[in-house]
Amino acid sequence: MAVKPVVLCLNRAGEDIAHRISAVLGAPVHGREDRVERADVFFANALDHARTLFAAGTPIVGVCASGILIRAVAPLLADKVTEPPVLSVSDDGAVVVPLLGGHRGANRLAGQIATALNATAAVTTAGDVALGVSLDEPPAGWVLTNPQNAKNVMAALLSGEGAKIEGDAADQAEWLSDLPKGKGVSLICSTAPQSDSPDALVFAPQRFTLGLGCARNCDPDEMLQLVERCLEEAQLSPAAIKAIYTLDLKADEPAIHAVSAKYRLPVRIYDAAALEDETPRLANPSDVVFAEVGCHGVSEAAALAGAGPDASLRVEKSKTKNATCAVASSPVPIVELRGRARGKLSIIGIGPGQHSWRTPEASKLVQEAEELVGYGLYIDLLGPLAFGKQRSDFPLGGEEDRCRYALERAGEGRNVALICSGDAGIYAMGALVFELLDRRASEMGVSDAARRVEVISAPGVSALQGAAARAGAPLGHDFCAISLSDLLTPREDIVKRLQAAAEGDFVIAFYNPVSKRRRTLLAEARDILLQHRPANTPVMLASSLGRPEEDVRYLKLSELDVDEVDMLTVVLIGSSHSKLAALGEGPRMYTPRGYARKIDGDLAKKQA
């Protein structure tokens, strides 16, 4: 799913232009609070907001001074191949400047906006200005296979040398037709593998699709060898392949995804009914396959369906003991992917809430998701990143329904994000997702389609880490975390763990310390700990970490009172070695690991 740009508007002077751009691009307008009257989303700080969008991979069109956007994203600049486009537009709409990502969409957006506004697109990339084409950004349906040569070839063309366009697909490369002709450099347009040459660029038209099928848990090496053999026999470059297609029952096969990873190809799927519709075009229909999966062929049918109604088989079904492969050919480069995606569930920890504690990976996965699922408060904490996305809010206590729903939606081919606070794998939804996947359907598990989705987990800053950072360094030595909720864990097990942690002299972080109906376990925990560590052991109470209402306070273990704690509080109990350092900005809690003792010992040895 292509990520839509966001139009930033910082003042009323640029408001009309921002909405005109929004209408052209179909993009939302994000406006500065108190300075813009109309916007889809409002933000308080322009630099922070632009930085958050950029980290998430969102293209930005700012109706503002270029310097504002430059200052915002400068700390994040690292990889020009993956960074999103950034453009600035003057308040009067007269000038459009692509600042970043010229060859990754910014120049195209600049031209589109400039045409709509009757403005000047201040494009500065050499190829666009002098040649009228960006050789390192071929049109959809084409791939540059040796981008490392683009700089040298472009330099030669800019110095006045001409280009020779050759190869079996040269007649389909109309987008190169206006370049100056000559023999200085070669632009090879071919579906076949090509040897590399420093004065040549190789473009592959993506006219082919790869259809794969296999037995359950086929050895990935077996499939990889089969695919490699088929491509070699057909004299096809892997770059000429648009995508891998298969039956939905095979969506989670490691062998198929090994091919996807090696050749960096997306995997798309069809159900049996759609593949059965391809039967008249099959070279090798099979009644045996039909009896097993409901269609007369998998690899040939999938390849043909993916390549379109005018496609033909370039490579008929080739097979090994456990794998099948076929290749279909389209008469023209394939632009749009057919079929549907496998489905993806991202289990995302967004940290305590503030955007600066959210990892770029988490922000990017949220941006890419089609649907957000979670406790409503956690989705709200995403702020502008949640705008425009379908969201499914669940109440506290609906955790299993929440995870089951997210998996089933992903099983329908959607990209779904399950939003958790803190880290998704620490007292959150990660474990429940995998538990549901591990259950059989008869045991209240999820559907077979949900079991075949891609599941990934993105780490987040846990409440434990956030509290520790605010405190100083209380986790400098061995520590543990214990949930005091007996909703899912028997009370006697919690008490057993409390006693073990107390005897082991661990620093302890208490999650879920109290609830409206559960008020005694925290006091019991305090009394158990007082049997093993001093009454003046430092305790930190941290509430609403990372939010405007954040509250951090310290007290002694003997003073810990249940009424001071709620469900939004993390309780950090020091070990017998933990200390409070009295500093100018206030007390800081730390647990020494023993470096001072080691230094003292080394000093004593030297003095002796």
What is this structure's SSE topology?
Blueprint: E1 6-9, H1 15-25, E2 29-32, E3 41-43, H2 46-55, E4 60-63, H3 66-73, E5 86-89, E6 95-100, H4 106-117, E7 120-121, H5 126-131, E8 142-144, H6 150-158, E9 163-166, E10 185-189, E11 200-205, E12 208-214, H7 220-234, E13 241-247, H8 254-263, E14 267-270, H9 272-276, H10 287-293, H11 299-307, E15 312-319, E16 323-329, E17 340-341, E18 344-349, H12 360-368, E19 371-375, H13 376-380, E20 390-394, H14 399-411, E21 415-420, H15 430-438, H16 448-451, E22 454-458, H17 463-471, E23 472-473, E24 479-483, H18 491-504, E25 507-511, H19 521-530, E26 538-543, E27 551-556, E28 569-573, E29 579-583, E30 586-590, H20 595-607
Helix pairs in contact: 1-4, 2-3, 7-8, 18-19
